[in-house]
Amino acid sequence: MLNTPASPLKFPRLLLTGAGGNLGQELRPRLKVYCDVLRVSHRRDLGSAAEGEEVQIAALEDADQMLTLLDGVSAVVHMGGVSTEQPWAPILAGNIVGMVNLYEAARLKGVKRIVFASSNHVTGFYRQDEVVNTRMPPKPDGFYGLSKAFGEDLAQLYWDRWGIETVSIRIGSSFSEPRDRRMLATYLSYDDLERVIVAALTAPIVGHTIIYGVSDNQTIWWDNSNAKHIGYRPKDSSDQFRSAVEAKQPVIDTKDPAAIYQGGAFVKASPQG
Predict the structure, then answer these.
(1) What is the spatial distance between Cα 273 and Cα 35, in angstroms, rounded to a whole number?
(2) Which helix (H) or strand (E) holds 53?
(3) Of 19, 183, 227, 271, which sits most exposed with the smallest number of CB within 10 A?
(4) Pick the CATH number of 11-267 from 3.40.50.720, 3.40.50.2300, 3.30.540.10, 2.40.128.50
């Protein structure tokens, strides 16, 4: 967790959706310092509210529940929805219908800033020998990546038509440490995850900006030069783990699509499994 300043810029009420997910659980204690009240939500029980928290159960696909969830909210960190390759039905409910419900609720309740957890899988079918910037066309690697591309387009629509600002963060591989050679390029430390979210929340003017959530790794496939106005400066790197990861995975099968394309195993994942 970051050593935050004594008086950070604070929101009266910040909403964290998907607070029961892997990254939501990591962010829940971190985001409290940036708001007077942190409202956390998930579709299942989150336990008791900590000091300065509000806990609210809500399903993204339920429009009425989303209207209630967005009531009185200053800004949203949207980590909710399906986060892996799945059959179409749950992705449709959480990542398509749920996104529309979220943005409609934000419009009706006057919320003007959303940080959207998009994914690097929006561009998963670019090759690992390419460097991708945020203005290149999407090449999603499955239904999941496709749904995140939809979410980015939806954010653009709500900015152009209703003035709701969004930073879409194409999150890389956010774990305590990289697990394989691919993650040496895609690794995003938990502290850098916090840094990019706080930058996205507090940058004065963002419109709709797309940025890759990635640490300052030696190997990198993504160019964030079009998002410098966000002010995100990663401070961590996968490099400290490089020797151990390369020793664990010394040989790469260059005929394996997971080793050719940036999406890794997602390019081979079955949408039915």
Answers:
(1) 39
(2) strand 53-57
(3) 271
(4) 3.40.50.720
**The model's pTM:** 0.95
135/140 Cα distance (integer angstroms): 14
Exposed, middle or buried, 198 (CB in 10 Å: 0-12/13-18/19+)?
Answer: buried
Handedness of CA 125, 195, 31, 167 (dihedral sign): negative
Q: What are the residue boundaries of the structural domains of the chain, listed by start?
A: 11-267
- How far is Cα 17 from Cα 61, in angstroms, rounded to an integer? 13
Report, as ranges of residue numbers, the positions in the chain whose pLDDT lies below 70: 3-8, 272-273
Task: Tell me which residues are annotated as active site.
Answer: 144
> Bridge-partner residues for 35, per DSSP?
11
For residue 65, CA distances in Å to 41, 69, 270 come to: 11, 6, 31
